[in-house]
Design a protein that fits this description.
The chain has 6 helices and 11 strands. By secondary structure, the chain is of the alpha/beta class. Helix 2 (about 85-100) packs parallel to helix 3 and helix 2 packs parallel to helix 6 (about 215-229).
């Protein structure tokens, strides 16, 4: 089933330029044909194409909105991008498929990558949403300084790091019906100063098990743990 992202205005749905091009040039769907739509805000629709153009296609809504059944938590993952950006693109795709609400990329003291292509990561997230038959597109933020991210508001704030300390697992925290902000560091880990700064800012220390995980594996571990909790 092909799903298209659209801006909904009353009984009409306007496909985004990228979706219009894909609809007309790749799938060659014509006027009068039925299509499935999402608004990216959690709602499914069905429609019938009335105007077909590679830059602007419009459909008449025939059914909807039907709300996506949402997971009972809000997960904001803040993670330092790896030197190999392919690993971050893989993480975004898999995290979206499993279920995530927001991803922020951290600029840390030990970061090996200081530039990301935010637009490409957003497109990967959108594609993963459609592939996994979801209607909510997670928020993808660009690179943000560590000192700014820890000021974000959340009901539960956790930082995962490799330093020896007393830590708790995700199962030790109540995550349902709460907004959680989880910090995952770069391949060189967070600095001691960053860890102390986070603790001062109200973050609890998080254990991701006995094994030392790669950055993207740690991010996926968190997504899985939340989905199964």
């Amino acid at each position: 089933m092909n799903i298209f992202i659209a801006h909904i205005n009353g009984s009409l749905a306007e496909l985004t330029p990228e979706e219009s091009w894909h609809c007309t040039k790749v799938l060659r769907i014509k006027a009068g044909e039925p299509i499935h739509l999402i608004d990216g805000k959690g709602n499914f629709y069905e429609g019938e194409l009335s105007i077909v153009n590679e830059k602007k296609s419009i459909a008449s809504i025939t059914s909807g909105p039907n709300a996506q059944v949402k997971h009972p938590y809000y997960l904001h993952l803040a993670i330092a991008p790896t030197k190999n950006i392919d690993r971050m693109e893989w993480l975004v795709e898999k995290a979206v498929e499993i279920g995530i609400d927001e991803i922020t990329f951290l600029r840390c003291k030990n970061s090996e990558r200081t530039v990301i292509k935010e637009d490409r990561l957003i497109k990967i997230a959108e594609s993963a949403v459609k592939q996994s038959l979801q209607a909510f597109i997670p928020k993808i933020n660009g690179l943000i300084n560590f000192s700014d991210v820890i000021k974000e508001s959340a009901d539960l704030k956790l930082i995962a790091h490799c330093e020896e300390s007393t830590k708790k697992s995700i199962m030790d925290f109540e995550i349902k019906n709460r907004k959680s902000l989880i910090l995952i560091g770069p391949e060189g880990d967070f600095s001691k100063e960053e860890i102390n700064l986070a603790k001062t800012g109200g973050f609890s220390e998080l254990s991701l098990g006995a094994n030392r995980l790669r950055t993207e594996t740690a991010g996926l571990y968190v997504c899985n743990a939340f989905a199964l909790a």
